[in-house]
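Morning!

This is the sequence you dropped in the shared folder:
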Amino acid sequence: MKRVKSIVCILCLSVIVVISCLLCGCTGGMGDTGSGGKGDPGGADRTERADKNSNEPGLLSSEKDIDLRDTDGGGENYLFDYNGKEFKAKFSDGCWTIFDSYKIINGKDLVIICRALNSIHPVHGSDLESYRTPEDMAYEWEQHNIAYVILPKDDPWREHAKDVDIDPEDQGRSFEEIYEDRTGKKLELW
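The structure's back. Tokens below.
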């Protein structure tokens, strides 16, 4: 019985990896970690294709389409429009938080939104010297979206996954890596 459960677990995680790769447009080998180039230390291959994750055209053609605006003039609280809805974003302590981010799933649009955010307040890379690219930021957003869909409804981390917090420490990390780091537990889906 234990062996069957282990096989099922491996198969399930394999499916999750494949789904994650399909969503973020990964076509490289499973061991790709990226070039580690300036602006994207380790993980470039996983993140530079975030805007090519589907054949679906995005709703946006430029950053201007979201009408990103500072709500109080303090450089911290922002609103933007997407698909007829208003979304809240906050820049604090060097990172962006986009509330209810799970509602936006198109990879091309995520990159355009991140480009707009990045043009106002860039976010440092994990080395705290470089800056994250819009594609890299969109990859992290996609990982939150994947976690929101995959985590059981009663898992407290699902609620956290609904709002992406784009910060230096999560650059290039998968949702599984982020989950395990935050909880100290292996991700178990059943």
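Headline: The radius of gyration is 17 Å.

More detail when I'm at my desk.
O.
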